[in-house]
Amino acid sequence: MSERKPKVVGFCCEKHGIDSAILAARSGRQYDASVRIIKVPCTGRVDGIHILQALEDGADSVFVLGCLEKNCHYDTGSIEGRKRVEYVKSTLADLGIEKERVEMFNASSTMAWKFPEIVSKMVDVARRLGPIGKAGGDR
Amino acid sequence: MKTGSNLEKVFESGKFAVTAEIGPPQSANPEPLTHHAKMLKGYADAFNLTDNQTAVVRLSSIASAVIIMREGIEPVIQMTCRDRNRIALQSDLLGASALGIRNVLCLTGDHQIFGNEKASKSVFDFDSVSEISVFDKLRREGKQAGGQEIKDPPKVYLGCAENPFATPYEFRATRLAKKVAAGADFVQTQAIFDMDMFEKWMDEVRARGLDKKVHILAGVLPMKTAGAARYMKNKVPGMIVPNQIIDRMKNAKDSKEEGIKLCVEQIETLKAMKGVHGVHIMAVMWEEMVPRIVEEAGLLPRPSIE
Amino acid sequence: MIVAKRKPMAEIAEMVAPYKTVKVIGCRSCVAICLAGGEKEVKMLVSALRLKAKKEGRKQEFEGLVVERQCEKEWVEEVEGKILDSDLVLSMACSLGAQTIGDMYPKKIVFPALNTGIFGVPEEQGVWSEKCVGCGNCIIHTTGGICPIARCAKSMLNGPCGGSSNGKCEVNLEVDCAWYAIHERLKLQNRLDLIEQVSPPKDWSTSHSGGRRVYVRDDAKLTQHQKKGKEAVR
C-alpha cells in the first residue's frame, strides 16, 4: 500500500496570492503537488464555512493566502480574511481539533520564495496530523 | 447529633414529635409573640416562625425567634428565597446561628403576588433545593456557595417542606428525595385533608427508603368553618380537601368543635402511619387551640431529653 | 422576537402635548409583527393624536414614519432629516429603537410610545407569551426544551413548587406550570432522570445581574484601519 498523500487546500486571492504562486513556478521553484489551489477574488471573500467544508471534505490542512495587510488590493480584504481564519481556528480548538491545520498567510506578488515555504509548512502539518478522525479524510 | 436542638433530640429519641406554627405580627410589637410563647410552652417541641408568609410583611422570622427564645421555647425559623439573594441568605444563616437559633426551614416562598407588596421585585436567586444544598455545605464544610471557606460555620438543623397534593403528583416523592439528597434533616408537609392520597405518597416515600433518611412531620390544620374548608379546596393552589370533609364541617352543630375533633382524628391516624415521625400543627390565627389538640391527641407530656 | 405593547393612549397624549412638531417613528421588525409599532399602528397613532390635538385646540404637527429596523443606525439615518426637524420623536419601536435614536441624536428628545415587555412567541393570533428572559446561559437541553427561568414565576431549577395545581401556576391559573410541562415532556421522551438530580444554584453573572452585557464577535469587528476606510467612504 502506497503512502497516503497529504491533502492540502489553499485559498489564494487572485491578486498577490496567486501571483506569488505563479512567480514561484516561473522562477523554477518546486512545491508539493498535493496542494489544491482555489482561486478566490479576495481573501475577504473566504468565509469560515469554506474552510470548514474543505476540512469536512477531507483536507488535512487548509491555508488562506492573501495580499500583505498594508498593501491589499481591496484595502482591507486580507485583514477580513485573517479574522475569519482566527475564528475558524478558535472554533476548531473549542472542539479539540488541532487549530494549526488552518493558517492565514500574506504575500506580495514579488515574493517568489514565499509560496513554496507556505506549501511545505502546510504539507508538514498534514503529514504530521493525518486525516481528521478515523473514518474521515478520504471522502 | 448535628446541633443538639430539642427538635433534633426528640427525633433522634424516636419519639413522636410535635411542632406548631406561630405567625409573627404585622407590627413592631413583640407582645403577641411573647403571649403565644407563654401560652404554648410545653405543648410542642419547637415552634415555626413564618417568614413573611403569603408575602405579607411581618415582624421578621429571626427576630421573632429571638423573642420567643427569651420565653424558653425553641424556634424553627423559616427562610424563603423570595426576598433574599445568596449573600443575604448565607449572612442571615450565620446571624441566626450566632443568635442561638438551631432549626431552619428552607422554603422557596410564596410569590409576592399573594401579598401586600405586589409591586416588589422578586429575588429567587435560589430555590428551596439549592438553598438546602448550599446551607448543608456551609454547615458541614464551612464552604460558601461561591467557594469561600469560613471559620466557625453555622450549627443548624435543616428542614424543608413538601406538598404531596401538588401536580405532578408522581414527581412529589422524587422532589422530597432531591431535598434529602441536598441535605434536609426533616420535612414538614402541606396540610393533609386527603388521607388516602397522603398514604399513597407515603408508600412511595417508604419504597424509596426516604423515611429512614429524613424525619417526616405530617402537616395538620384545624378548621373553624365549612367555608374555610371550601376556600382551601377552591382557592388555595396545591391543597386538596375531599368533599366528605366539607360536608362533615357543614353538617356539624358546632363547626369549631368539629374542626378540632377532625384534627385530633387526623393526628391519631398519622401517629399510626409507618414512617411518620411527628406532626406539624398549623393553627393559623387559632394558636390558642394547639394545647387542646395536643392534649386530646394524647401527645402530652412533651418529652424532655437531655 | 421582542414583544411590546402600546402605552395607554392617554399617557401618550399627555407626553406629547407640549411639543409642536412630532415625528412618530415605527419599525418594521419585531414590533410590526406583534402589532405594536408597525406601519399601521403608526398611522393609527398619528391619526388619534391629531384628533386629540384638534379637540383640545392645540396646534401640533404629527408625521408618521417607519424604518426597517430602528435598533440599527444605518436604517435610522434614512430619516435623519425628519428627526432633526422635530421637537419630539415619539418612537413606536421597542425601547432599543427609541434608545438608538436618542444615542444618535443626543440633542433630540425621544419618547417611547410602547412598553417593551418580553422575548416572546405568538401562541395564537393576538396572543404572545414570554419564553426567555435572556439569562445568558441556556439550559433548556436539560429541561425538555422548556425554560424554567422564564416560564416559572419563581425561576425554579429543581422541579415544581407546592403551588402547581392541575398543571397550572399558582400565580396565574390561566398559565401552565412550567415544571409540570417539563415533567410531562421529559416523561414523553423517557428522560425523567434529567430532573431527578439536585440542580446546583444558577450562576446569574451571565444575566443582567452581572451588569450591562455587551457581546463581542472579534472576527466581525472592524480594525482601526477598516474603520478609517469606512469613514473615508462616507
Describe the structure.
- The complex is a heterotrimer of chains A (139), B (306) and C (234).
- By secondary structure, chain A is α/β, with parallel strands linked by helices.
- Chain A has one domain: Rossmann fold (3-Layer(aba) Sandwich), CATH 3.40.50.
- Chain A contains four helices and four strands.
- A four-stranded parallel beta sheet of chain A has the order 2-1-3-4, with helices on both faces.
- The longest helix of chain A is centred in the middle third of the chain and has 18 residues.
- The C terminus of chain A is likely disordered.
- With 306 residues, chain B is an alpha/beta fold.
- Chain B has one domain: TIM Barrel (Alpha-Beta Barrel), CATH 3.20.20.
- In chain B, helix 6 crosses helix 7 and helix 10 packs across helix 11.
- Chain B is globular and about 60 Å long.
- Chain B starts with 5 loop residues before the first helix and ends in a 10-residue tail after the last helix.
- The mean pLDDT of chain C is 96.
- Chain C has two domains: 117 residues, Diphthamide synthesis DPH1/DPH2 domain 3 (Rossmann fold); 65 residues, no CATH class.
- Chain C has nine helices and seven strands; from the N terminus they run E-H-E-H-H-E-H-H-E-H-E-E-E-H-H-H.
- In chain C, the strands form two sheets. Chain C has a four-stranded parallel beta sheet, sandwiched between helices. In chain C, strands 1-6-7 form a three-stranded antiparallel beta sheet.
- Chain C has 234 residues and is α/β, with parallel strands linked by helices.
- The longest helix of chain C is centred in the N-terminal third of the chain and has 17 residues.
- Chains A and C meet through helix 3 of A and helix 9 of C.
